[in-house]
Amino acid sequence: MAMLLIIHLIYTTIRLIDKFNGFITMYVCLCKGITERQVQQAIDDGADYKALREELGVASDCGQCGNTCKQMLKASQECAFYDAQVPQVA
């Protein structure tokens, strides 16, 4: 149980610098090493929660990243809904 607490604390506070491209990267899943960008890219490519679990392996070990992935999916769906409702100006 203490290990899960440690993972959760690290998960909710850590921000690492991705030295490859210089951007701040948030790790969504420390167990699998999955970043916010990887999850967002999968969502942008049409993944749902089940696909995120299958393709990236999120929420399959300790499960702490599941809620973050669900929040990211919800935010993406809300943006898509808003974009669909904006009237097109000619």
Report what the structure shows:
The protein has about 90 residues and is mainly alpha-helical. It has one domain (about 1-80): Orthogonal Bundle (Arc Repressor Mutant, subunit A). About 55% of the residues lie in helices and about 10% in strands. It has a two-stranded antiparallel sheet. A two-stranded antiparallel sheet has the order 3-4. Strand 3 and strand 4 form a beta hairpin. Helix 2 crosses helix 4 (about 65-85). Residues about 15-20 have low confidence and may be disordered.
Q: Mean pLDDT across all residues, rounded? A: 78
Ranges where pLDDT stays below 50 over 5 or more residues in a row are 15-19
Radius of gyration computed on alpha carbons: 15 Å
Question: So what's the CATH class?
Answer: Mainly Alpha
Order of helices and strands: HEEEEHHH
Helicity level: 40-55%
Assigned CATH superfamily: BFD-like [2Fe-2S]-binding domain
Q: What is the 3D shape?
A: elongated
Q: Strands of the largest sheet, in order across it?
A: 1-2
Sheet bearing the most strands, described? 2 strands, antiparallel
**Span between termini:** 58 Å
Based on the model shown, name its key terms.
90 residues, mainly alpha, Arc Repressor Mutant, subunit A, 10% strand
Could you outline the blueprint of secondary structure elements for this entry?
Blueprint: H1 2-13, E1 16-17, E2 24-25, E3 27-29, E4 34-35, H2 36-44, H3 49-56, H4 66-85
Antiparallel strand pairs: 1-2, 3-4
Helix pairs in contact: 2-4
